[in-house]
Amino acid sequence: MPATGTRKRLADLGAVASGLAHEIRNPLNSLYINSQILAEIVAALPEAADRKEELLSLARANMKVTRRLNDILSEFLRFARPAATEFVVADLNRVVSDTLRFLEVDFARRGIELVASFHPEPLPLFADEKQLRQALLNILLNAEESMDKERKVIRVTTGLERGRPLVRIADNGRGIPRADRKQIFRLFFSTRKSGTGLGLPIVRKIVREHGGKIGIRSREGRGTTVTISLPPEEQSKARFAPRDANRPLPEKVR
Ligand SMILES: Nc1ncnc2c1ncn2[C@@H]1O[C@H](COP(=O)(O)OP(=O)(O)OP(=O)(O)O)[C@@H](O)[C@H]1O
Ligand SMILES: [Mg+2]
C-alpha cells in the first residue's frame, strides 16, 4: 500500500489529467466540425475543380482522426473519473446473463457461438452491478475481437469455488503471445489497430474495487480464459460497511 502522500499525489495527477482531457475536448470538437464543413464545401465543388479528390480525402481523414482522439479522451475520462460506486446485493448469475443478453445479437451477427453455463443457485454478491457489467463487457469484447478461426466459440461459466462466486470467460481466439502477457494490464497497451488499451486496466480497477481477483490464462493460437472471482455477499458487506453495520443496506434483488 503506497504512502498517503503518494496516493494523494496520484489522485492530484488524475485530476490534472482529467482537467486537461476536458480542455482538449472543446477545440477538438471545433476541429471536427470545421473538417466536416470543409468536406461539405469541397464535395460541392464542380467535379473538374483543381485537386478536388485530394482535398476531400484530406478533410475526411481529419474527421476520422479527430473522432478517434475524441473516443480516446472519452475512455480516458471514464477511467480517470473517481467512480461513484453504488453497491447493492446482486446475483452474479443475473449480472452475467444481463451482460450476455446485451451482446447476443452482435455475437450472432459475427457467427460466434455462445455457450453459457450458470451455477444452479443464485450467487449473491455485494457489488456495483453497472461496473461489473462494464468489466464483463470489456472482457467479452476482447474475446470477440480475438476470433480468428472458422469456428468461433465463447464459453461463459459461473460457479462457486471455495465459497467465492466466480465467472469464467473462455474464447478460442488467437491467444496472447508470451511477450505481451506482462503488458496487457498496462494503460494504453493495445495490439489492435483501433484499440485504446483501456479495456483491461478498467477491468482490473473494477475487480479491485470489489475485492476480487482476476486471472488470465492464454495459449497462443488456441485461446484465452479470463477468470474473475469475487468475495461472497457477507464478506463484502463486512469489508465495505465496517463502521456502519447498523445502517440498512440498499437491497435491489431481494
Ligand atoms: N481475449 C483476448 N485474446 C487475445 N488477446 C487479448 C485478449 N484480451 C486482451 N488481449 C490483448 O490485450 C491487449 C489489451 O487489451 P485491452 O482490452 O486493455 O485493450 P484493447 O482491447 O486493445 O483496446 P480497448 O481499450 O478498446 O479495450 C489487446 O490489445 C490484446 O493484444
Ligand atoms: Mg479491449
Please give the share of residues in helix.
Answer: 40-55%
| Top-tier CATH class of the largest domain | Alpha Beta
Count of discrete structural domains: 2
Bound molecules: adenosine-5'-triphosphate, magnesium ion
Q: Structural class, judged by helices and strands?
A: alpha+beta
Query: In DSSP terms, counting alpha (H) and pi (I) runs of 4 or more, how many helices?
Result: 7
CATH superfamily of the largest domain: Histidine kinase-like ATPase, C-terminal domain
The helix/strand series, from N terminus to C terminus, equals HHEHEEHEEHHEEH
Instruction: Please give the order of strands in the largest beta sheet.
Output: 2-4-5-7-6
How big a fraction of the residues is strand? 15-25%
Note the main attributes of this structure.
254 residues; alpha+beta; Heat Shock Protein 90; 2 domains; two-stranded antiparallel sheet; 7 helices; 7 strands; 50% helix; 18% strand; globular; disordered C terminus; binds adenosine-5'-triphosphate; binds magnesium ion
Description:
The structure is a single chain. The chain is an alpha+beta fold. It folds into 2 domains: 4-80; 88-240, Heat Shock Protein 90 (2-Layer Sandwich), CATH 3.30.565.10. 50% of the residues lie in helices and 18% in strands. Strands 2-4-5-7-6 form a 5-stranded mixed β-sheet, covered by helices on one side. Strands 1-3 form a two-stranded antiparallel ribbon. Strand 6 (213-219) and strand 7 form a beta hairpin. Helix 1 runs antiparallel to helix 2 (52-80). The radius of gyration is 22 Å and the shape is globular. Mean pLDDT is 88; it is low at 242-246 and 249-254. The protein binds adenosine-5'-triphosphate and magnesium ion (MG). Adenosine-5'-triphosphate binds next to helix 4 and helix 6.
